[in-house]
Write a structure and sequence with these properties.
The complex is a heterodimer. Chain A is mainly β. Chain A is about 0% helix and about 50% strand. In chain A, the strands form 2 sheets. In chain A, strands 2, 4, 5, 6, 9, 10 and 11 form a 7-stranded mixed sheet that branches. A 4-stranded antiparallel sheet of chain A has the order 1-3-8-7, with no helix packed on it. In chain B, strands 2, 4, 5, 6, 9, 10 and 11 form a 7-stranded mixed sheet that branches. A 4-stranded antiparallel sheet of chain B has the order 1-3-8-7, with no helix packed on it. Chain B is about 0% helix and about 50% strand. In chain B, a hairpin with a 6-residue loop joins strand 4 (about 35-40) and strand 5 (about 45-50). Chain B is mainly β. Classes of the chains: A mainly beta, B mainly beta. Chains A and B meet through loops of A and strand 5 and strand 10 of B.
């Protein structure tokens, strides 16, 4: 059973960079594609992007210019950086694991709320 | 980008009743469609993958069908714990997209 846990600041100022880390346990980093997904309060789900253990990435074009996802297999972690944030980036951010290059999301973290506000 | 639409937006039913939820894709996704359940304050949970396959540990009252552009999630007899929001998601093309959700609430 793969377990994921998000961590990072819950408050980010406008124009700054949002940074989150997901720590993985119970599974091999080589077995899954590691995604970030977000959900604004009261709204639906948006896939941000994923990374494979090799470092290969796939980003949603709607956010690609602002997103960087990285992986540290030695720490069983992967990370999200979202630059130049605005209030529209306020959301619960989930990390998730999927088995395929074209993927579902088999396992999810509990999510962490990030608020963009001065 | 493939757009998914779900209907109805809200479904009001009683425990024991049958729930039928629909998801339509803007273009064919073959059978690459999944369904998730989300309860308040929780992460989504994978129920069905590739249109009709139940994920590990999912009760048999949940079933999925469809292919191409039209898909259905059926809950044969609603249990109290099934009242939640349900999302569909396609993995046919990147970016992977979700539908807006159907809320199943208690009548």
């Amino acid at each position: 059973q793969v377990r994921l846990q998000e961590s990072g600041p819950g408050l980010v100022k406008p124009s700054e960079t949002l940074s989150l880390t997901c720590t993985v346990s119970g599974g091999s980093m080589r077995s899954y594609y590691w995604s970030w997904i977000r959900q604004p309060p009261g709204k639906g789900l948006e896939w941000i992007g994923y990374i494979y253990y090799s470092g290969s990435t796939n980003y949603n074009p709607s956010l690609k210019s602002r997103v960087t996802i990285s992986v540290d297999t030695s720490k069983n972690q992967f990370s999200l950086k979202l630059s130049s944030v605005t209030a529209a980036d306020t959301a619960v951010y989930y990390c998730a694991a999927g088995m395929f290059y074209l993927t579902n999301f088999d396992y999810w973290g509990q999510g962490t709320l990030v608020t963009v506000s001065s | 980008e493939i757009v998914l639409t779900q209907s109805p937006a809200t479904l009001s039913l009683s425990p024991g009743e049958r729930a039928t939820l629909s998801c339509r894709a803007s273009q064919s996704v073959s059978s690459y469609l999944a369904w998730y359940q989300q309860k308040p304050g929780q992460a989504p949970r994978l129920l069905i993958y590739d249109a009709s396959n139940r994920a590990t540990g999912i009760p048999a009252r949940f079933s999925g069908s469809g292919s191409g552009t039209d898909f259905t999630l059926t809950i044969s007899s609603l249990e109290p714990e099934d009242f939640a929001v349900y999302y569909c998601q396609q993995r046919s093309n990147s970016p992977f997209t979700f539908g807006p959700g159907t809320k199943v609430d208690i009548k």
